[in-house]
Amino acid sequence: MSSSPSLPLGIVRVIDLINEYLGKVCSWLTVFLVIGTTVVVILRYGFGIGATALQEAVLYAHALVFMGAAAWTLQRNAHVRVDIFYQQFSGRRQAVVEIMGNLLFLLPVCLFLGWASWDYVGNSWATHEGSSESGGLKFVYLQKSIILLLVVSLTLQGISNLIKALYVITGRLPAPEVNHG
């Protein structure tokens, strides 16, 4: 038996590392969200000064926090689950549910979102769309591209989760421990 991981597990490792790195980087933007929002409020209500560019930068960061870190959240199994039975299932049965959820819901939704947003993002890039507000940022096309970042990262994480679930079902990876309490 070889000590090197199989190709699929190597792919899993790379996808998981990329999404973890992206998620951690995006999570640090929450510090900017707090500071940026505080500065905008102080400027507006304390000094009567509008800060359109900073306000828009906060919106861009907000989009990145949620859409850039979504795959990392999925990887960590930290998404909200509304289930009655799943937590009581064995590890292998959970893997079957994971496969079905990825194949029937996650991947089709990602593919649809990618298809539906492609022209929207592409048209924005074609014109290098900027803010319609005076003093706003000139990078709306980059903000809209965050949608495709969401699609790609979630699709890759779905593939990673599928591979891991298949390995659990076939007994080549240990099933996650189930907490029945």
TrEMBL record:
Q: Which UniProt keywords apply?
A: Cell inner membrane, Cell membrane, Membrane, Transmembrane, Transmembrane helix, Transport
Provide a Gene Ontology MF annotation, just one. transmembrane transporter activity
Membrane-topology annotation of the record: Multi-pass membrane protein
Compartments, as annotated in UniProt = Cell inner membrane
Q: Which residues form the Tripartite ATP-independent periplasmic transporters DctQ component domain?
A: 33-165
Has the keyword Cell membrane been applied to this entry?
yes
An example GO CC term for this entry is: plasma membrane
InterPro entries for this protein: DctQ (IPR055348), TRAP_DctQ (IPR007387)
Q: What is the top-level taxon of the source organism?
A: Bacteria
Q: Where are the transmembrane segments?
A: 21-45, 57-74, 95-118
Q: How does it assemble?
A: The complex comprises the extracytoplasmic solute receptor protein and the two transmembrane proteins.
Q: Which family, according to UniProt?
A: Belongs to the TRAP transporter small permease family.
Protein task: Part of the tripartite ATP-independent periplasmic (TRAP) transport system.
Q: What is this protein called?
A: TRAP transporter small permease protein
Q: What is the lineage of its organism?
A: Bacteria, Pseudomonadati, Pseudomonadota, Gammaproteobacteria, Pseudomonadales
